[in-house]
């Protein structure tokens, strides 16, 4: 199935409004418009291109409002980062604990999101009792685990990572020597048959890392596994490329070839755990290329990034995600959004829902500029709060910026900027920003904190 043509196209309200105005101005004469749909969140922009955009979630962090707000606003596909793994769901043999997984599944359902299941059979994160098992006893226990967990979540899962990371690294293309592998070479297909029986409607994926570079032996080994399963009718629907990129495992130029080659075998392709170590333009460019590649392969279902903020990442020191530790959108975020919007990302200054010129409180007009501004609430207390605004230059360097504080912000004290009316401009030392560079100013506000989000920025 080609997902790119299937889903309904969603259009941001401002685009619909702009088209309606244009039509009215044309005196009702039918006119063709080249207006592009443009989403202003990742999930919206991805949906317009027939993709999902997901993230990995840790249930205990859902009480962190910055984390929860971003997760809910930006993503429409959720993977439990650890909560549906073997050690979490079957801590004692035959005693299943779905509390952590259900917490995430319930949050996803309540917020209208889909779920990827991760993972049913894996050599790692096995509970202690399983680590000590071998042979037919282990085979039976593994199949029972697959059946019980997939049955519990039956009907809720878009795709399951049925088997995770079964090949070894390096140039051999061999299976990883794990206790599961030692139960017999057919353990992978046995797991897929059990999963299909337990949840016939979930897509069943094989998921691995270092299968991104088409010329690597491990990629060829995974490819041969899928080809073999397809030729013998073993139930497999998708390949999950984890895509953890870093200097040892860089984004390969032939990534699109890899995606397309798997797709040509008749399986869907999912990018399941994307993170790209780095920063600034280089990181943003690589993210952009991954999105481009997925968009170019019609069977690429969607992209999941492996965490919300850099500080949530399993590799936090590599700052590999789309939001910084404060929840600010990074340059990489803007690159992904822009690519999903086919280069037509809406400028928030043109969005009536965000444009202070449309605000009945009469906030100032700013010329659209090559910068963006994002407000976060650092702290709040009865009667006041601390806000921080990150200003980021867009595709060109800027030599000054102005940010319009949206209606209702009553500043008590402000630093690293100059306040005039409701407009904050740079001070002498933080006006020059190279492309993608950021600076910030802070303030104490009176009253209740406003919602975090984009503010109008002009340069
Ligand atoms: O929750 C406990 C905490 O109570 C304890 O104090 C602490 C001490 O070590 O450990 C905490 O658990 C850690 C857990 O993450 C939650 O943070 C585990 O030790 C740690 O091993 C676990 O790491 C997870 C890793 O899988 C385990 O293999 C990462 O969060 C998770 O991102 C990572 O995800 C994997 C995918 O499942 C498969 N592909 C690779 C990917 C990255 O390794």
From TrEMBL:
<keyword id="KW-0858">Xylan degradation</keyword>
<dbReference type="InterPro" id="IPR017853">
    <property type="entry name" value="GH"/>
</dbReference>
<dbReference type="Pfam" id="PF00331">
    <property type="entry name" value="Glyco_hydro_10"/>
</dbReference>
<dbReference type="InterPro" id="IPR031158">
    <property type="entry name" value="GH10_AS"/>
</dbReference>
<dbReference type="InterPro" id="IPR018366">
    <property type="entry name" value="CBM2_CS"/>
</dbReference>
<keyword id="KW-0624">Polysaccharide degradation</keyword>
<dbReference type="GO" id="GO:0030245">
    <property type="term" value="P:cellulose catabolic process"/>
</dbReference>
<feature type="signal peptide">
    <location>
        <begin position="1"/>
        <end position="37"/>
    </location>
</feature>
<feature type="region of interest" description="Disordered">
    <location>
        <begin position="339"/>
        <end position="371"/>
    </location>
</feature>
<protein>
    <recommendedName>
        <fullName>Beta-xylanase</fullName>
        <ecNumber>3.2.1.8</ecNumber>
    </recommendedName>
</protein>
<comment type="similarity">
    <text>Belongs to the glycosyl hydrolase 10 (cellulase F) family.</text>
</comment>
<dbReference type="Pfam" id="PF00553">
    <property type="entry name" value="CBM_2"/>
</dbReference>
<keyword id="KW-0119">Carbohydrate metabolism</keyword>
<feature type="active site" description="Nucleophile">
    <location>
        <position position="273"/>
    </location>
</feature>
<feature type="domain" description="GH10">
    <location>
        <begin position="36"/>
        <end position="339"/>
    </location>
</feature>
<dbReference type="GO" id="GO:0031176">
    <property type="term" value="F:endo-1,4-beta-xylanase activity"/>
</dbReference>
<keyword id="KW-0732">Signal</keyword>
<keyword id="KW-0378">Hydrolase</keyword>
<dbReference type="InterPro" id="IPR001000">
    <property type="entry name" value="GH10_dom"/>
</dbReference>
<keyword id="KW-0136">Cellulose degradation</keyword>
<dbReference type="InterPro" id="IPR044846">
    <property type="entry name" value="GH10"/>
</dbReference>
<dbReference type="InterPro" id="IPR006311">
    <property type="entry name" value="TAT_signal"/>
</dbReference>
<dbReference type="InterPro" id="IPR008965">
    <property type="entry name" value="CBM2/CBM3_carb-bd_dom_sf"/>
</dbReference>
<dbReference type="GO" id="GO:0030247">
    <property type="term" value="F:polysaccharide binding"/>
</dbReference>
<dbReference type="InterPro" id="IPR001919">
    <property type="entry name" value="CBD2"/>
</dbReference>
<dbReference type="InterPro" id="IPR012291">
    <property type="entry name" value="CBM2_carb-bd_dom_sf"/>
</dbReference>
<feature type="domain" description="CBM2">
    <location>
        <begin position="364"/>
        <end position="459"/>
    </location>
</feature>
<feature type="compositionally biased region" description="Acidic residues">
    <location>
        <begin position="348"/>
        <end position="361"/>
    </location>
</feature>
<dbReference type="GO" id="GO:0045493">
    <property type="term" value="P:xylan catabolic process"/>
</dbReference>
<keyword id="KW-0326">Glycosidase</keyword>
């Amino acid at each position: 199935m080609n997902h790119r043509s299937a889903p309904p196209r969603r259009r941001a309200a401002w685009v619909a409004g702009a088209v309606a105005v244009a039509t009215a101005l044309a005196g009702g004469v039918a006119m063709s418009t080249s207006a592009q749909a443009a989403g202003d969140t990742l999930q919206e922009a991805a949906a317009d291109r027939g993709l999902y955009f997901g993230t990995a979630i840790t249930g205990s962090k859902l009480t962190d409002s910055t984390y929860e707000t971003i997760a809910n606003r930006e993503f429409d596909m959720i993977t439990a980062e650890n909560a549906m793994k073997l050690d979490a769901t079957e801590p004692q043999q035959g005693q299943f604990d779905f509390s952590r997984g259900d917490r995430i599944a319930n949050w996803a359902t309540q917020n209208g999101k889909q779920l990827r299941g991760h993972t049913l059979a894996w050599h790692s994160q096995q509970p202690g009792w399983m680590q000590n098992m071998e042979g037919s006893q282990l085979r039976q226990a593994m199949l029972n685990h697959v059946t019980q967990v997939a049955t519990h979540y039956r009907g809720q899962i878009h795709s399951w990572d049925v088997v995770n990371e079964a090949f070894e690294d390096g140039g051999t293309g061999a299976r990883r020597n794990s206790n599961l592998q030692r139960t017999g070479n057919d353990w992978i297909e046995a797991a897929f048959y059990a999963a299909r029986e337990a949840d016939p409607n979930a897509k069943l994926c094989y998921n691995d890392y270092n299968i991104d570079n088409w010329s690597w032996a491990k990629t060829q080994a995974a490819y041969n596994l899928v080809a073999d399963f397809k030729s013998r009718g073993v139930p497999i629907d998708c390949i999950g490329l984890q895509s953890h990129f870093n200097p040892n495992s860089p984004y390969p130029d032939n990534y699109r070839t890899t995606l397309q080659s798997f797709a040509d075998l008749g399986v869907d392709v999912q990018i399941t755990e994307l993170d790209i170590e780095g920063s600034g333009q280089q990181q943003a460019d690589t993210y952009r290329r991954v999105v481009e590649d997925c968009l170019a392969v019609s069977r690429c279902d969607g992209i999941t990034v492996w965490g919300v903020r850099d500080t949530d990442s399993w590799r936090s020191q590599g700052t590999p995600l789309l939001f910084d530790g404060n929840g600010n959108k990074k340059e990489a975020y803007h690159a992904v959004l822009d690519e999903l919007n086919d280069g037509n990302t809406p400028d928030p200054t043109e969005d009536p829902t965000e444009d202070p010129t449309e605000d009945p409180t009469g906030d100032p007009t700013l010329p659209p500029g090559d910068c963006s501004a994002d407000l976060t609430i650092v702290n709040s207390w009865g009667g006041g709060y601390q806000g921080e605004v990150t200003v980021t230059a867009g595709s060109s360097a800027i030599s000054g910026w102005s940010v319009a504080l949206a209606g209702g912000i009553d500043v008590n004290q402000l630093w690293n900027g100059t306040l005039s009316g409701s407009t904050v401009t740079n001070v002498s030392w933080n006006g020059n920003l190279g492309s993608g560079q950021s600076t910030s100013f802070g303030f104490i506000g009176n009253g209740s904190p406003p919602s975090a989000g984009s503010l109008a920025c002009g340069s």
